Amino acid sequence: MALRKIRIMGDEVLEKVCRPVEKMTPRIKELIGDMFDTMYDGMGVGLAGPQVGVLRRICVIDTDGEPYVLINPEILETSGEQTGNEGCLSLPGQYGQVTRPDYVKVKALNENMEEYILEGTGLLARAICHECEHLDGIMFVSHVEGELFELSEEDEEE
Ligand code: NI
Fold this sequence. Notes:
Blueprint: H1 26-41, E1 46-48, E2 58-61, E3 68-79, E4 82-86, E5 94-100, E6 103-109, E7 115-121, H2 122-134, E8 145-150
Antiparallel strand pairs: 1-2, 2-3, 3-6, 4-5, 5-8, 6-7
């Protein structure tokens, strides 16, 4: 496993629509491992294929010590609303206020290409929405209410 280079906003790979994964291969398995390493190294809670330059519908999420791989994710249901600060490893150090659903139900394949359902509230719901949008070339900045701002490291807990 290895760290991959994170693409930064402005890189056009972040604006493309990703292709679905049709079957698991050693190469994709390695990619998923690398995505987790890269996400943890960057202290992020989610990472999507395009952020490491791979236009495949794959994201990894870990908001609370529980790692999830979402392959070809499809949001089935959302409800409620939450407004809070959001950031992205492709826009280091910059945050913005974004309103997201407070509950999300998503269908995806795991790393064994088995279908599962993931339900999330709070930060997990936010991360699911954020990462799934990356797969359609959408960055969170398009939802930011007001200005982007910088947070000091001590404030980054959120
Ligand atoms: Ni992001």
